Amino acid sequence: MTVIYDRVALIGLGLIASSMAHAMRQYGLVGEIVGHAKSAETRKIALDIGLCDRVCDTAALAVQGADLVVLCVPVGVMGDLAAEIAPHLAPGATLTDVGSVKGAVVEAVAPHMPSGVQFIPGHPIAGTEHSGPRSGFATLFQNRWWLLTPLDGADVAATARLRALCEGMGAHVDEMDVAHHDLVLAVTSHTPHLIAYTMVGVAEHMRRVSNSEVIKYSAGGFRDLTRIAASDPVMWRDVFLTNKDAVLDILGRFTEELFVLQRAIRMGDGEQLHAYFTRTRAIRRGIIEAGQDTAAPDFGRATVGGGEGKT
Amino acid sequence: MTVIYDRVALIGLGLIASSMAHAMRQYGLVGEIVGHAKSAETRKIALDIGLCDRVCDTAALAVQGADLVVLCVPVGVMGDLAAEIAPHLAPGATLTDVGSVKGAVVEAVAPHMPSGVQFIPGHPIAGTEHSGPRSGFATLFQNRWWLLTPLDGADVAATARLRALCEGMGAHVDEMDVAHHDLVLAVTSHTPHLIAYTMVGVAEHMRRVSNSEVIKYSAGGFRDLTRIAASDPVMWRDVFLTNKDAVLDILGRFTEELFVLQRAIRMGDGEQLHAYFTRTRAIRRGIIEAGQDTAAPDFGRATVGGGEGKT
Q1: Interface TM-score (ipTM) > 0.85
Q2: How many whole angstroms separate alpha carbon A223 and alpha carbon A229?
Q3: What is the CB-side half-sphere exposure of residue B62 using CA atoms within 13 A?
Q4: Residue B69 is inside which H or E element, if any?
């Protein structure tokens, strides 16, 4: 691999940034990796584990001289961060972000961008339920999609260079319009997280079913929802606050659809239930064929270390 | 291990029965395994792969002389099956089932039981999204819970013997009341499945987001729901039709709770969202500590065969 950027500044050192650091280093994609996190504890961990070549106490220091700056912070603080670093960005630098919402990030960040800096919003569709500087690993982006949503008049060469970095980390890259991104993600990520959080909350509130029962008998399906409902609370709060319209749109459809099935249950309409449950199998097959999930039973849990749940 | 039953008849040869066959044989728990499935194709596969010692063309033939009969068929056909086999059950035999709903099974099966036959309803909280006679494996029940719901006046020795079989296959056994079982399972299994089916259905119906986009970008959370939404449609139709009251109860609570979060999104109440998302993390930790799921990121998908999604 050839070096794509001489110096990359990662602002925010959580799961995505730490995975990028591991991947960029392992695949030799960049010269120097500079990092900054708001929390002194996170900066100390990053130093201790050698995540970056340098860790700076401020974002302004970290971005100086970087030819790529990556904002890896919750969507709600992107605007303030952009205002803070804007005067320190190198002419000709590219700035991208990894936020799960693009419309709100563009609105918050773009006005601060000096001329001569290329702002190319991005979003890797990858993650785990873990967070923090220790949670990253080099293969997180392997075979995952990294969406770029370049704005009108974006520099073609700068976009191609950023794409090369993402591909170098093992990702596939697609470009799409900002609003379409936010709708697609409301369907494939934001609403699924909200209903998972809700179902876990319902289980927790039941007085007639104890939490220990919920936990013991979770292998019946519930435990699958608890994984995404264990994701970072700040990140997800910001996602819902900033992608409000698309999420409310999909939630409305979800509730409509749920009521149709609820009515079928109440009326004892077995045919309707059976037809519905048969159609949804095809989507799972598509996901496996597209290499976006494993075909192994139970996500392969059963084969990890022998008996499932034992690892 | 000592032999617990001399002859076990498995009626229905899907995921649970085939896993029982593998486990009982591997751990030397029974003398002879006799099987029957309604479909000639399933019987042929069972013969071809040597799943049972004998495969019978009728359920009546299969149960003759068995000291344990296990009904492994969808909940909706348990009653007719019980009526069919009742005259052929051996005196002193135990009959159990593995249905995900207990109230409806008891109502359908108990009236047909001859005196001298012990009917002890059961339910292993274990499974995968796969079905059919080839989908079973011996470790399915390892470290999982197997619930028994003995009826009033159940024979203590017969219950202990059935418990020993379940434990011999690696399961933990709990006994509980029929109605409580159905409520607990509505929370930990039935409602989670219904909302997963619903979310997958919503994604499939969206015209502005194509199915190929839903599939490509599913790693943002959606793919987790598609696994349980790929479960056997007949089994799940019957679960919802026969555990109607408990499922409608939990669905009502779910919708209530979802509306609270939906309103918080609409009103921009970040504090409420953050507090909710923080509480739900604790349940996930409890499930991992109880050995009911893996702590590995992404269910260990990331570590199965290298890059996630590649296996």
Answers
A1: yes
A2: 10
A3: 30
A4: strand B68-71
Nearest Cα neighbor of B203 from A238, A185, A295 is A185
Q: Which of B123, B181, B207, B284 to probe by mutation at the A interface, max A CB count within 10 Å? A: B284
For residue A310, pLDDT beyond 60? no
**B253: nearest Cα among A15, A202, A9:** A202
pLDDT at residue number B307: 35
Write down all domains in chain B, each with its CATH number in brackets.
5-176 (3.40.50.720), 180-268 (1.10.3660.10)
| Contacting B residues, span 89-128, partner chain A, CB-CB under 8 Å | 100, 125-128
The full length of chain B comes to 311
Per the CB < 8 A criterion, the answer to whether B7 and B66 are in contact is yes
Q: Which helix (H) or strand (E) holds B8?
A: strand B5-11
Q: Name the nearest CA neighbour of B198 among A76, A85, A195.
A: A195
- Which tokens is B298 given? 């992404």
Looking at residue B290, the DSSP 8-state letter turns out to be T
- What is the bridge-based pairing of β-strands A145-148 and A122-124? antiparallel
Strands B145-148 and B172-175, by their bridges, are parallel
B207 shares contact with chain A (CB less than 8 Å): no
Please give the model's pTM, rounded to 2 decimal places: 0.91
Does pLDDT of B277 surpass 90?
Answer: yes
Record: contact B142-A174, CB cut-off 8 A: no
B308 pLDDT exceeds 60?
no
Contact of B5 with chain A, judged by CB distance below 8 Å, is answered with: no
Query: What is chain A's length?
Result: 311
B266 touches chain A (CB under 8 A): yes
Q: What is the DSSP letter of A187?
A: I
pLDDT-wise least confident of A36-45, B26-35, B110-119, B219-228:
B219-228
Judge: A310–B143 Cβ closer than 8 Å, yes or no.
yes
In angstroms, the Cα distances linking B284 to A145, A170, A227, B277 are 27, 30, 7, 12
Longest dimension (CA), chain B: 67
User: What CA–CA distance (Å, rounded) separates A5 from B131?
Assistant: 50
Distance in Å, alpha carbon of B91 to nearest chain A alpha carbon? 34
Q: If you count residue pairs, one on A and one on B, with CB atoms under 8 Å apart, how many are there?
A: 419
A202 touches chain B (CB under 8 A): yes
User: Which amino acid makes up residue A72?
Assistant: C
SS (H, E, C) A204-261: HHCCCCCHHHHHHCHHHCHHHHHHHCCCCHHHHHHHHHHCHHHHHHHHHHHHHHHHHH
| pLDDT tens, position by position, B222-267 | 999 999 999 999 999 999 999 999 999 999 999 999 999 999 999 9
Q: Are A215 and B290 in contact (CB under 8 A)?
A: yes
